[in-house]
Design brief:
Radius of gyration: 21 Å
Oligomer: single chain
Helix content: 40-55%
Number of domains: 1
Strand content: 15-25%
Number of strands: 4
Strand order of the largest sheet: 1-2
């Protein structure tokens, strides 16, 4: 039962990292030249989930902007809100699943202690 707790907690920590990076990406969506972060989740040995953060190097769209010497091409952020919002919804479902695991483990432990007493 304790293994389930550790696995659920590591999942919650990994999802927290994903939510933090989503929030940072959305907050910097209007920043010129900003490169978004992507969080990859992988299995941690012997149990749990590990979050790895990487920068996405793909360029953002270019727009012409009026400057002192005329028009210049300026790179915008490569953050796409159509990718960030569904990812936040997936993170929400992941949080709910891990919390349900913790609740179930708590109930099982409580039942075991009631039987033992």
């Amino acid at each position: 039962m304790i293994n389930g707790v550790y696995t659920a907690l590591s999942g919650l920590q990994a999802l927290t990292t994903r939510v933090e990076k989503n929030a940072n990406n959305v907050a910097n969506m209007q920043t010129q030249g900003f490169k978004k972060d992507r969080v990859l989740l992988s299995e941690r040995y012997p149990q749990g989930v590990e979050a790895t953060v990487e920068k996405v190097a793909s360029p953002g769209p270019y727009v012409a902007e009026m400057r002192e010497r005329g028009y210049e091409m300026v790179e915008l952020s490569n953050v796409d809100l159509a990718e960030e919002i569904p990812e936040l919804l997936l993170n929400k479902n992941g949080f709910n699943a891990n919390l349900k695991t913790l609740e179930t483990t708590d109930k099982m432990t409580r039942s075991l202690l009631d039987i033992k007493a």
